[in-house]
Amino acid sequence: MLQQTQVTTVIPYWKRWMRTLPTLQKLARAKPARILKLWEGLGYYSRARNLQSAAQKIVTEHAGIFPNEPEQIRELPGVGRYTTGAISSIAFGQAEPIVDGNIVRILTRIFGIQQNPKEKKTQEKIWQLAQTLVSAAKDCSSLNQSLMELGATVCHPSQPECENCPVARSCAAKREKNTHLIPARGKPIRYEDKEIKVYLLAHNGKILLQQRPEGITNAGFWELPNNETGPEITLPKRARPITSAKHNITKYRIKLNAYSIKPGPFKGRWFTFSDLRKFPVSAAHRKILKFLEPHVSRTIE
Ligand code: SF4
Fold it and tell me: Which ligand 1 atom is nearest residue 106's CA?
């Protein structure tokens, strides 16, 4: 939940999740729509699906007990090298390294690594350094957590607080006065703008929605018909969107423009706005629906 999301945003989600699905068994058995609903608004929905798949694997292959071997942890859906290191060291006190953005910054500065940390060879070097440090530590959990904390609170990307840093005496970047050059930056991400046309079909106070198919981002979510997952409708020349919503996915800056249309080639399910509150809907479509609600609700005959 915390990936790319602030702690204050996550807390209510976490509490609701733990109230609804307090055990691995409950998570493994939950309906996928319920999982998506609990995650609605956090984005990166594959994480929610992976959590459920991991719970199912633990129930079927590990008798419902979370495995404590790093190799077994790594085999769980959605768990990569970083998560394996975090669980193994923090939950089980094992000498497994973790490397995130904060730790990259600290280690490249302490050891004066000037190469771009996005390059594979440099990444591997950083992982090996992290491994060496955690292997030498008495308390692996504290070592990894203190590295993360140091990166988050002292070794800032710009203007690190070297005067307050407990490892200042060992830091090559401080000694060489080149903290502003380390870690080396790669090319900036180039964002691409994308427009999606969203079609509004309302009838008797209800609105037509479709479910996103499997195999694409946000699969299983309900959304207004659109030209991303369905056909493009020819709009009158002067058609203007009724409302718009923006959201970003990976390198795309997406603008959803909503148009009112006559019944077209769209199949789906008609929802009242109160029904909709129980179903998972992505944040951008939710925003358009919020705008529409007072208008569509008035069309009840
Ligand atoms: S001395 Fe400065 S640059 Fe080096 S780890 Fe500490 S805060 Fe970061």
Answer: 5
Pocket test for ligand 1, best of 103, 107, 174, 182 (most atoms within 8 A of CB): 174
Mind listing the pLDDT tens digit for each residue in 182-219?
999 877 778 899 999 999 998 888 999 999 988 888 88
**Euclidean distance between CA atoms 126 and 150, whole angstroms:** 16
Q: Which two tokens stand for residue 259?
A: 């148009």
CA distance 225 to 232: 10
Separation of 71 CA from ligand 1 center, angstroms?
33
Q: Whose CA is nearest to atom 1 of ligand 1?
A: 168
* CATH number for domain 192-297, candidates 3.40.50.150, 3.40.50.300, 3.90.79.10, 3.30.365.10: 3.90.79.10
Q: Is domain 78-188 classified as CATH 3.40.830.10?
A: no
For 40-96, the pLDDT digits (tens) are 988 888 899 999 999 999 999 999 999 999 999 999 999 999 999 999 999 999 999
- Residue ranges of the domains in the chain? 1-66, 78-188, 192-297
According to the model, what pLDDT value does residue 295 have? Answer: 79
- Rounded to the nearest angstrom, the distance between the alpha carbon of 109 and the centre of ligand 1 is 7
Ligand 1, CB cutoff 6 Å, lining residues: 106, 109-110, 154-155, 160-162, 165, 167-168, 171, 173-174, 179
Spell out the CATH class of 1-66.
mainly alpha
The secondary structure of 111-170, three-state, reads CCCCCCCCCHHHHHHHHHHHHHHHHHCCCHHHHHHHHHHHHHHCCCCCCCCHHHCCCHHH
Note the pLDDT tens digit of each residue in 91-119: 999 999 999 999 999 999 999 999 999 99
